[in-house]
Amino acid sequence: MKKKLIYSSMLTIGLFLSTSCTKNFVQLNTDPTAFSATNFDPNYLLTTAQLNYTGSQDFSFDTWRADLIYSSTLIQGFATSIGYWAGDKYLLNPGYTAAYWQSDNGADGAYSEQVKLIVDMVTTTTGVAKYNNLHQIGRIMKALIFERITDLYGDIPYSQAGVGYYGKVLFPVYDKQKDIYTNLIAELQDATSKLSTTGDVPTGDAFYHGDISKWQRFGNSLLLRVAMRLSKVDPATAKSVVQTLIGKTMQSNADDAFLLHDPAGGRPTVNRVSQVLLGGPENTYVKWSQTFINILKSTNDPRLPVISVTKAIIGASGGDNNPADQKGQPNGYDLSGTPGLTLSSAPGYTTLGDYSSPSTYLMKLGSPTFIFTYGESELLLADAAERFGIGGPAATHYNNGVIAAITYLAEYDPNAAVSTSAASAYVTANPYVAGATGLQMINTQYWELTNTMMDFYESWANWRRTGYPVLVPVVYPGNVTNGTIPRRFPYPYQEAANNPTNYTAAHNAVTGGDLMSSRVWWDSQ
What we know:
The chain starts with a helix and ends in a 16-residue tail after the last helix. The chain is built from 22 helices and eight strands. It has helices at residues 2-20, 25-28, 43-53, 61-74, 94-97, 110-125, 132-153, 164-167, 177-193, 212-228, 235-243, 272-277, 282-285, 290-298, 304-307, 374-388, 394-407, 420-429, 436-452, 456-466, 495-498, 500-509; strands at 78-80, 156-157, 174-175, 257-260, 286-288, 308-309, 357-358, 368-372. By secondary structure, it is mostly helical.
């Protein structure tokens, strides 16, 4: 009877609740501490997505492997003899080339740490008037994030990426890069046009701290870069888009987009490049490339004594910053002891310490990560002016870009400042020459700038677009590109298990095969 009484009592209570509380059922049965669009500030998602764009939280494996081990050395910004740095040997380490997409354990990488967050933010702010500017910034960030991923791999999950929760899409298709770029242009045009200087001020913005005018110029400058990426494969579209941006891009170094890191906040908040290079053996064995240092020395570049030092490991004080003493390390050597391959047999070798390391000004845990700079935007406008005859004299944009690329270094450290007069004197001593020579000068300067920014992803992408600077490939035994500089990263092997049908279709569709020597769509010959 006791059990029957209990059941009877529960039934009575249930009937009472069902009749008296039905209209408030959802409210009463929702955990007030759980996330929802009504009780969570999406500004936090923006902050985290911006931070993760500077490097993943798994000890920055994407930065370590994709930006440094591969991009920096194959584009001959850095050189090293460390065996696992496979980039300038053109060797394939599938785990390393996959790192930007997804790390070995599948927990980190751009899709989990950037795409998911920014798609969440854009989705939860759609149609919410009080978050209009935050929503548009999210769309611009989304374009920034996806541009890098598609530039590295080619066709990628895009339209269905990050919508597993909202759209129940667990196996996203790989969109064609051509379609991705078409959508990136449309998204940037629309999002930037809808930013309002009288609207909401996003509190989670780590780049510009809610300055909408700067976001408008950033959105247009990013659109400029996206459009110019098509200059080889679709010059008509590139030209038509750039024409709409004249006078709307970044106006000075004050518009530079960067995230200033906080070493006091712990490992996830520090500068990710510095985090890697300050550790051993990287701090001893990673050097500026011979190609890079020789180009700077050939023009008496005033950046040289600021960014480079000999006779010191990375992060150490002291050393020699005399421009005449700077010496870049040749790419493609190792520590094997094999004659012709080991570093000690390289022409001109004296000691490891005689090779130039990045200076301490650039290598601090609290250093900024530069996202996009005025110097980049002006050099892209110079390229468009020379290539398409639009936007005013190419020489004007070139001079602006070079001066900006030299003077921006003060943003790393006040002691790294190069005066405007010194930068102007450099431009005067190395005047712009129109035509094919001009395109080479513009894009060599772009390479120099993005190298000093440690944005080797962009340095590699622009080199693939333009072919400048002219680099002599390394020929290393066992390389997988037939002695040519790699053009893309192969798809991550994890995708064969995680998204088998769509991975197989994309893998089989790569022209020339899913190889490091194959080309993405905008890089097609």
